[in-house]
Every structure is written in structure tokens, then in C-alpha cells.
Amino acid sequence: MADYIKFVDVTKCDGCRACMVACKNWNDLPAEPEDFNGSIQSHMDLTANTWNVITFNEQETSDGNFEWLFRHMSCLHCNQAACEKACPESAISYTKFNSVVIDPEKCVGCGYCVQNCSFGVVQLATYKDKNGSEYRKAQKCTLCTDRLEQGLQPACVVACHTDCLIYEEKELVLAEANKRLSEVKERFPNANIYNPQGIEGTNTIYLLADKPSVYGLPENPKVALSQVVWKDYAQPLGKMMLGATTMAVIGAAISNAVRKDRSEGDHDHE
């Protein structure tokens, strides 16, 4: 199966927010009205129940005019995801579609993924059990993995009327990204393809009209070495040692029981 990734060409986005509506509808996420704060941006940031936000940045052009720079903000589905490295419960994993997903059955709401996400995407939702006690679960965009499993495109991609969002084979996406970059360079001299290699690339690639920092994106995000050591080495080794210790204890108990049975048997024959 070929690798598929999502491409976001911000230079085609007109800020219609159809992707936001489609995301809410498909994932059955509750509405989150916000008080007017003087901005035409409908939501200031992602939340546990708003997985997709269109950001609005007004920028002055070289001729003294102004234009809007939009960005479809959602999970980038990193190839080396800091949230996955930080999770102590193995509740975050990669799917065959290269999406990064959270298993609500394993999530304990510790919040380590929230603290360590390279892009501030993961958030905690609060729920109540049948006794009224509150508990938390981490939530974010799933790249519509449930739709991908049915052979469908992500809901946001289907809703986009400007083809700002594309979900296609990786090689085709990269070719299109480079083609579009050469086409928009005259209008946007600082245009660039955002696919940070410090996290081994992402499965949502952007064509940005300006530097990543203009869009609130880190220039070169990286997963902390301590997280890599913890997740890929210390934790598996600890589990192996725990397993070995457990087996040793069980083995000792069985051995003692056998010796006891033999000893009692010897006494019976005296």
C-alpha cells in the first residue's frame, strides 16, 4: 500500500471554515461558542473538542496593502510524535495510514502528551462517570482514520472547495507541493514547504506563504532525547526486567512448593 499524506496549500485557502464544520459533524464534536474578542477568527486555538481551526493573520504587503494569511490548523501526525513518546500507557500509536491516534480505553488522562506535543495540538477533555465523578481523556484530530478504513477521504479534505486540502499518495503530494512553491514564489518570496525533519517529517505537509513562525509554527521542532531514551529504551527494558523479576518470583514459589511437597512425601514414608 502506498503512503498517503495530507497537503495543505495555505495560498489557496479563503478562510471559509468548511473544514471546521465537516470535522465537527463527522466526529460528533460539541459546539464551543466563544465570546467575541475583536478578531474575525472564530476560535483562538484547538481544544479537546475542536480539532480543526482556521487561523487568520493579517499581513502588510510590499506595496502597502494588506492581505490575509490563513492556516488550516490541526494535528500534523508527526512521524516521530512527541505525544507518543511521552505517553506512559502506550495509549498513543501509529496506524497503517501513518496517522497518530489515541486509544481512549488506555488513556488515563495524565496529560503528558499535552505537555509534550510539539504543536500544542493534544488537549484533555473532561467527562463524568455514572457516579458523577470527573475523569479526563486526551483527544485530537485522528486524520479521520475511521473514514480511511472505509476507503474515504478525511472529512476536512472532502469539504474543501478550493482544493487547499489534498489527501493523496506521498510522491504525488510532494511533487505538487514543489510545483506550487515555484508558482507562488513571486507573490510570496518567503514561501516554503513545511515538513520538519527534526521529527522525521509529518503526514500533514504545508505550503506556507511565509516563515513558519508567522503561522505560529515552530521552525524546527524536535523530540527531546530524554523522551526517545525513555520510550524506546528505558521503558521496554524496564518491562523486560519486571517480567524477568516476576517470572523469577513465580519460579521460586513453584520451586518452594515442589520442595515442600517432596519433603512431606518423604515424611509420609518414614
TrEMBL record:
Entries under InterPro entries matching the protein: 4Fe4S_Fe-S-bd, FDH_Electron_Transfer_Unit, Formate_DH_Fe-S_su
Chain positions recorded as [4Fe-4S] cluster 1 binding sites: 13, 16, 19, 160
Keywords for this protein: 4Fe-4S, Iron, Iron-sulfur, Metal-binding, Repeat
Chain residues that bind [4Fe-4S] cluster 4: 87, 107, 110, 113
Required cofactor(s): [4Fe-4S] cluster
Domain 4Fe-4S ferredoxin-type: 4-34, 66-97, 98-127
Cofactor mode of binding and number, as noted: Binds 4 [4Fe-4S] clusters per subunit.
Pfam families listed in its UniProt record: Fer4_11
Location of the protein in the cell: Cell envelope
Molecular function as annotated in GO: 4 iron, 4 sulfur cluster binding; metal ion binding
Residues the entry annotates as binding [4Fe-4S] cluster 3: 75, 78, 83, 117
GO biological process, any: formate oxidation
Residues bound to [4Fe-4S] cluster 2: 23, 141, 144, 156
GO terms for cellular component: cell envelope
SUPFAM superfamilies noted in UniProt: 4Fe-4S ferredoxins (SSF54862)
Superkingdom of source: Bacteria
Signal sequence, renumbered to the chain: none
Protein name per UniProt: 4Fe-4S dicluster domain-containing protein
